[in-house]
Design brief:
Layout: E1 3-8, H1 15-28, E2 33-37, H2 43-53, H3 61-85, E3 89-93, H4 96-106, H5 111-121, E4 129-134, H6 137-154, H7 170-186, E5 191-195, H8 200-215
Parallel strand pairs: 1-3, 1-4, 2-3, 4-5
Helix pairs in contact: 1-8, 2-3, 3-5, 4-5, 4-7
The structure holds P1-(5'-adenosyl)P5-(5'-thymidyl)pentaphosphate.
P1-(5'-adenosyl)P5-(5'-thymidyl)pentaphosphate binds near residues 143 and 203.
């Protein structure tokens, strides 16, 4: 049985951590799982991701929006729809709601334009469930900074500096959080908000129960 589940939230709220644990749990239950993310899940998307996150690059907000849309169109066509058609449970880190929160509430682009573009880029595909990890941005950004410090100390990874979005000011991150919370109250039928200050273990068990119930697993 297939299902399409999206994790959303601001920087450093714990989406990647949760998705890895969810995927492990479902694989152990014998469920066919595909984990994916935006931006950057296809070979075109990887190029777009590097451009979009590069802290040295100046990108006009409309150009930024269109690059995210291009990434999504490729992602839906090449990865998400085929996996759903193949009967997989798709766990996706960010989707159309990030565009509303970041480019709409964060950058100030007209929400109606974003909804129109999202519907084109996603070809109207909406998830069965959205898990919104909600956390005060001050705490979330501290988590990101701590992780960057650890990466700098212990590895030679090239990802050791804050990206274009992590570098945005606190006002931006607060607006993004507001955007996600507004979306959660607008789309009550698919959104569930989780308190991301809880431990990873608690969040995994809460999320697991919600996905199983919604996707009949
Ligand atoms: N974007 C994206 C747009 O502007 N528009 C769009 O349409 C789309 C799709 C993508 C950027 O693009 C923007 C949003 C983003 O800024 P990204 O690198 O994919 O960039 O960014 P994030 O999704 O924000 O990835 P992060 O890795 O920064 O955040 P996560 O995945 O939410 O957090 P995670 O799991 O990596 O955890 C962060 C740290 O916290 C710890 C982890 O160990 C890690 O060190 N942690 C916890 N600590 C305490 N308690 C918990 N429960 C914890 N869970 C994790």
């Amino acid at each position: 049985m297939s299902g399409f589940v999206v994790l959303e939230g601001g920087e450093g709220v714990g989406k990647s951590t949760l998705i890895v644990e969810l995927s492990k749990s479902f694989l152990a239950m014998g469920v066919k799982v595909l984990t994916t993310r935006e931006p950057g899940a296809t070979s075109l998307g990887k190029v777009l991701r590097d451009l979009l996150l590069d802290p040295q690059r100046k990108i006009d907000k409309m150009a930024e929006l269109l690059l995210f849309a291009a990434d999504r169109a490729q992602h839906v066509g090449e990865v998400i729809r085929p996996a759903i058609n193949d009967g997989a449970l798709v766990l996706c880190d960010r989707y159309v709601f990030s565009t509303i929160a970041y480019q709409g509430y964060g950058r100030g682009i007209d929400l109606r334009k974003l909804e129109f573009l999202n519907s084109i880029a996603s070809s109207g595909l909406l998830p069965d469930l959205v898990l919104l990890l909600d956390l005060e941005p001050e705490i979330a950004i501290r988590r990101v900074s701590k992780r960057l410090e650890e990466v700098k100390k212990y590895s030679r990874s090239e990802v050791s500096e804050a990206d274009r979005f992590e570098n945005c000011d606190m006002e931006f991150h607060r607006a993004v959080r507001r955007g996600f919370l507004n979306l959660a109250s607008e789309f009550k039928d698919i959104f569930v908000t989780l308190d991301a200050s809880k431990s990873p273990q608690v969040l995994v068990s809460e999320a697991l129960a919600l996905v199983r119930e919604r996707c009949g697993l």
